[in-house]
Specification:
Layout (H helix, E strand, L loop, with lengths): L3 H30 L3 H27 L19 H28 L3 H31 L3 H11 L14
The structure holds fe (ii) ion (FE2) (2 copies).
The site of one fe (ii) ion has 5 residues, from α1 and α2.
């Protein structure tokens, strides 16, 4: 059985993951409106990934005899100045999520909840990848600068990203 403190912290994380999904869907909408469909594709895959993160926490709580309490989802930003601003926000958001995951791991250690700590290791590794992905795209967008052709080339590359449900296996 999961402790009330751990359960409540994971409830907040389910909300944070769904909020992340909503944020990325908003970013996808921004890119669709700019006819950058490859970037929009990348963001829609982020959206799908965040939903699988929420479900991983959701299923975990129920597997430990708990019950998730869903909370309201806050509003998300709707517009950005340019593509690089979107990815700077993405990186800052993922850095924030890394802090949330680390905080959950701290609670698991305090509560001597080894099962939750073990489950969280997947998320700790996943966050490394999330931050690295955003950083890489920021670097590329900075290289591109105002070059429209470069932007279209990156858009074509991001169009090739496909969704893989990595919550079912180890992070690479
Ligand atoms: Fe996530
Ligand atoms: Fe994420």
């Amino acid at each position: 059985m999961i402790s009330i403190k751990m359960q409540s912290a994971i409830d907040d994380q389910v909300n944070a993951e769904i909020w992340s999904a909503y944020l990325y869907l908003s970013m996808a909408s921004y890119f669709e409106s700019k006819s950058l469909r490859g970037f929009a594709n990348w963001m829609k895959i982020q959206w799908q990934e965040e939903v699988t993160h929420a479900i991983k926490f959701f299923d975990y709580v129920h597997s430990r005899g708990g019950k998730v309490s869903l909370k309201p989802i806050s509003e998300v930003q709707l517009d950005w100045a340019n593509p690089v601003a979107v990815f700077i926000d993405t990186l800052e958001h993922e850095q924030h999520v890394t802090q949330l995951i680390n905080n959950l791991a701290n609670i698991a250690v305090e509560e001597k909840d080894h099962a939750t700590n073990s489950m969280l290791q997947w998320f700790i590794s996943e966050q490394i990848e999330e931050e690295a992905n955003a950083e890489q795209i920021i670097t590329q967008l900075k290289m591109i600068g105002d070059n429209g052709y470069g932007l279209l080339m990156l858009d074509k590359e991001l169009a090739t990203r496909v969704f893989v449900d990595s919550t079912k296996g180890p992070v690479q």
